[in-house]
Design a protein that fits this description.
21% helix; elongated; single chain; D-Maltodextrin-Binding Protein, domain 2; 177 residues; disordered C terminus; alpha+beta; 4-stranded antiparallel sheet; 6-stranded mixed sheet
Length: 177
C-alpha cells in the first residue's frame, strides 16, 4: 500500500498488513448470502445443499484480473466451496447492481454480501437460498501505517470514524500467531 503511494486502504481482518493501525468500519459481522427470484425458484426448484448449486444457473462475480469468486458455505461445521457456473459473470463493484438486477429478472442464483441483497430480500424480489449455510465473517477495517503525522484528509476521516466506531487497534503481527 505505502509503496504504491496510498495513505490508507480497506481490508478484511485476514488480509491486514503487518504493523498497521486498523479501525473497524461497517458491521462487525457480515455474511455472504445466496438468493434468487421467486420465478427462478419456481422454474428450477430451490437447492437444498450447497453442492446442488452446480446444477443451477449461478450469477458469478470476480475482481478485475482474478478468477471467479468461489462461493463458500458453512454446513455442520464444514466449509463447502462451490465454483459457480452460469450465464453471467459480473465485475465486482459497479457491475454488482447489474448482477442483482439479473437475479431479480430470473437469470439465476446470486451470492453476494447480505447487506447488498437486503433491499431486494426485504421487498420479496429475491428469496434467500441455503440461508442456514451462509458464511459469516468479520467486517472490514480502514488501515494505515502507524505514522505519527497523517495527511490532513486521512486524519479527518480517522477522527470521524473514531467518533462513530469501535476503538482503534494496532495489529502487530507475530510469526506463528
Amino acid at each position: 500500500m505505502v509503496a504504491e503511494g496510498f495513505d490508507a486502504g480497506i481490508r478484511y481482518d485476514e488480509s491486514l498488513e503487518n504493523d498497521m493501525v486498523a479501525i473497524p468500519i461497517g458491521p462487525r459481522v457480515q455474511r455472504y448470502a445466496a438468493a434468487a427470484s421467486p420465478e427462478y425458484l419456481a422454474r428450477r426448484g430451490p437447492p437444498t445443499h450447497p453442492r446442488d448449486l452446480l446444477d443451477h444457473d449461478c450469477i458469478a462475480w470476480r475482481f478485475p484480473n482474478v478468477p471467479r469468486h468461489v462461493w463458500q458455505f458453512e454446513r455442520h461445521g464444514e466449509t463447502i466451496h462451490v465454483e459457480p457456473r452460469g450465464p453471467l459473470v459480473a465485475g465486482f463493484g459497479g457491475a454488482t447492481d447489474l448482477a442483482v438486477q439479473a437475479a431479480i429478472a430470473g437469470c439465476g442464483i446470486l451470492y453476494l454480501f447480505e447487506d447488498w441483497l437486503r433491499p431486494a430480500l426485504d421487498h420479496g424480489a429475491l428469496v434467500p437460498v441455503l440461508e442456514p449455510s451462509w458464511l459469516r465473517f468479520p467486517g472490514p477495517f480502514l488501515y494505515y501505517p502507524g505514522r505519527r503525522y497523517l495527511p490532513a484528509p486521512l486524519r479527518a476521516c480517522v477522527d470521524f470514524i473514531k467518533t462513530t466506531s469501535a476503538p482503534v487497534r494496532t495489529r502487530p503481527r507475530h510469526p506463528g500467531k
